[in-house]
Design goal:
The complex is a heterodimer of chains A (233) and B (283). Chain A is of the alpha+beta class. In chain A, 23% of the residues lie in helices and 41% in strands. Chain A has an 8-stranded antiparallel barrel with strand order 3-4-5-6-7-8-9-10. Chain A has a two-stranded antiparallel ribbon with strand order 1-2. Chain B has helices at 3-16, 21-33, 55-66, 86-98, 117-127, 147-155, 186-193, 217-229, and strands at 74-79, 102-107, 134-136, 160-164, 167-172, 201-206, 234-237, 244-246, 255-257, 265-272, 275-282. In chain B, a hairpin with a 2-residue loop joins strand 10 (265-272) and strand 11.
Amino acid sequence: MKSGKRIFKKWVARPGSWLLLMGSLLLAPSARAEGGPSEASLQLEENFLARPMPMVFQEDTVFFKFSWLKPQQLRFQYAGLIGFASVGLGYEFTPRYSAALYYGVLSDTFGGSSVRVHTVSIKSSWRLFREGLLGPVEPRAGFSLNWGNTNNTFRRLPAHYPEKYYFQNKLHLAPFWGAEWALPLREGKWIKGIGLYAEMSTLDAYVLEMVRTRYVGLHDIWNLALGITLYLD
Amino acid sequence: MHLTLQLILALRLMHIFRIHRRILLAGLLLLAAGCDNLFEYSPYKAGVRVPYSDLNLKAMKELEAQSSEAFAPFTIGVFGDTHTYYDDFEKQVARFNQQDSLAFIAHMGDLTLSGIYREFIWYRDISSKLKHPLLTLIGNHDYLSNGEFMYEEMFGPWNFTLVYNNCLFVFLDDIIWEKNVQDPDFAWLESVLEGSEHYKYRFVLAHIPPWSAPFSKGNEYYYNMLMDKYGVDLSIHGHTHSYYYGQRYENGPPYFTSSSSNKREVFYLDVKEDGFEIRKEDI
């Protein structure tokens, strides 16, 4: 267990490994589309994903399908408080609401931070206008729940502190607004569309200072994130 | 990546996708609005651009050039616990700038509330308006998140000393709980105080006063014992958010704590030939 952890840590520490991971993620769909598995094996795989799996909770049986976990979007983001670069899996729940789970990394090589920071983020976003109202531009807003691990972050205070000495600082709420420029691709491909997005986001702590002080103004708290969304078929 | 490069890249992308010129202009305005820190990778980032680094070391170099071999009277400004009281902090800076003859200003620590990236940037932004050299101590809040490392890059080592006009100033990092209950580096403190008797005065500056909760009874006693043993003239602190000056223990030096910014006070330490004096000024 311990050695496995060490190998993982070593792997994470090498910037080359990140490039490899990003590259393989990008190349995976094309490999499948071109060479790809045969029709039969693809059928089998889809059957497996769609097969209802009985799960028993106490006396209730719930039928769970693995296909529910299949994301509808794959996102790549630069900056935006969740690391130098991040990868996200997006899920469309309603025509208006979608959510995404991101993992982002910030390190010395990627982003110039002397301490490496891993961030996991759940982003909820709402479409602000009816689909197609502004053509391919789709304004949206929402918030992220960011969980970052650092040297001195905690959800519950360690035992040596008096009660309520500090407020928890592991979870941060990050509101955002922005827009995506969506381009549909030809049907029948693995990817049915591609979107480029830009978002301005801020952090709960920064909003608080904007409210509390005159020094911090509305224009001081925002930062820009750029990203690509791949819409999966 | 350099900001200009990022802008060029963004423009290039916009060109490729033939985005309307007005959208492009609006975008550019948006970029210009908050250009300084347009891209923020994480509130836990610990890394600053070159002009922001080693601020204490740079100020000390400046002070060494001004300092004289023999004692000459001087005054320093003292404040601390600015946290996110930015409006009051700005007023303190303006008040210090009304004084012409301050040797330097000591910030007694807690320059942030949560030790996150932008709080450090805001501190730097306001304090850069000071016309006197500034030396910043680390406080317990600055240890939160990755603040400890951000502080190190932005200011320099956590413990440091300065000799000014034949007076010794010892800046001690005495944060305990935020370092998982680690005692202050008393060995280092003793090593710099040992053989310092030839200086006209010796001042020790540390964020937490020894009677405050993070100090155990043993640490409290030991700290004051060191002050007494090496004949320190004054022990200066912050942390308590309120002004105090007095003989705290039976033996040892007098103690002084500066208040937090929201109390709207600034302090001066006049170091004279025949002793020193602390002055409090309300804003």
